[in-house]
Amino acid sequence: MVLSGALCFRMKDAELKVLYLHDNQLLAGRLHAGNIIQGEEISVVPNRSLDAKLSPVILGVQGGSQCLSCGTGQEPTLKLEVSPIGTSLLSDLTKPADAEATSWVSWGPSSSPLWGSVDCSPASPCSWPSSPASPTPFPSPAMPFCSQPVNIMELYLGAKESKSFTFYRRDTGLTSSFESAAYPGWFLCTVPEADQPLRLTQLSEDASWDSPITDFYFQQCD
Q: Which among 74, 71, 73, 75 has a CA at the least distance from the CA of 90?
């Protein structure tokens, strides 16, 4: 079956912080300006070019006009690729740090199955020291421009290369994790502190109270 439009989901991490869009960044929080955050509507389509058994998905916001991408560099850089008239604005969410100092990131479960695949180069990792020391935050660099526009349905229909936009969704009970298709071992994550950008991280065997949160509740919009 071919989708006529993207499916709508909302996401929150295992600590119930919801994802919301602010200044071209996806943040995770509970309150904004004193108001409860409803959460961003996440547009979701499968990547049909990848193994459906791995549940490859492409994630977008603003009706699919901005899509999460992990970039195409040697190291992953999580960003939103936007498609204004004639150009694509890349909004970096975070910059990758030392891969050895990072840990896992995952998403939450979905109330309905999704198939298809969307490739995504590893997005900016959440860099956290292996020692109990305080985590090292990532800077939010200026937004570079890209010459090609991006739209989630174009990616779904195969009009554009989509591996850097794809994440493998893995159910872990009530929650799900999301691994970059382009950068294996890199997962979407949030940090314990509220109102911080969505990032990428690698799995760490030494999890602690301040480790990145890689599990997400992934529920279809009402």
A: 71
Site of tokens 């937004």: 143
Q: The tokens of 176 are what? A: 């799900």
Residue located via tokens 């990428």: 200
**Partners of 189 in the β-ladder:** 199
C-alpha distances in angstroms, 48 versus 27, 106, 123, 133, 175?
28, 22, 21, 43, 23
Structural tokens at position 138 = 């990532």
Residue 92 is encoded by which pair of tokens? 């970096």
Q: Which residue in this structure is represented by tokens 């911080």? A: 196
Task: Show Cβ contacts of residue 157 under 8 Å, excluding neighbours closer than 6 positions.
Answer: none
Dihedral class, residue 115 (left if φ above 0, else alpha if ψ from -120 to 50, else beta):
beta
Q: Name which of 182, 178, 162, 151 is nearest 118 in CA terms.
A: 162
How many residues are recorded in the chain?
A: 222
Among the CATH numbers 2.30.30, 2.80.10, 3.30.2010, 2.130.10, which is that of 8-53+66-128+135-210? 2.80.10
What's the distance, CA 205 to chain centroid? 22
Torsion sign (Cα): 186, 136, 22, 109: positive
Reported as a single tens digit per residue, the pLDDT across 21-51 is 999 899 999 876 677 788 999 999 999 999 9
177 pairs with which residues across the strands? 170
* pLDDT tens readout for residues 171-219: 989 999 999 999 999 999 999 999 999 999 998 877 777 899 999 999 9
Token pair 């890199």 is found at 186
